[in-house]
Amino acid sequence: MNCKYSKIDENLVKGRHLLICTKTNEYCAITRYCPKVKEVINIDGYDKKCKIYIKEKAKENIDKNKVLFEKNEKLYIENDGQVLILANPFDYTPNYVSLFIDNGNCKITKGVI
User: Fold this and answer.
1) Which helix (H) or strand (E) element contains residue 79?
2) How far apart are CA 65 and CA 101, in angstroms?
3) C or N terminus of the chain, fewer CB within 10 Å?
């Protein structure tokens, strides 16, 4: 899977199309050649290695609360220096959730990843 900020360069370099970062307009260094699809793709784990991707992802999640972990179908959520424990309304463990107050109770806005 390729990073959403990368695009294939139209110019050939050593006979191959390389990936360009749309944020920096430079060649992406976190790539490898995949013989199966016969093109350059991002390496596995690029989302944990690319500083630009991590920075942009953090901007997207600015109004969301980080899920620390899930245990016994409950999410442990970081919120203003505290840890909230709420029932998990999802079929998976999300990385971030949005919270709202309903009748004095904190709840998760379903549908937010």
Assistant:
1) strand 74-79
2) 14
3) N
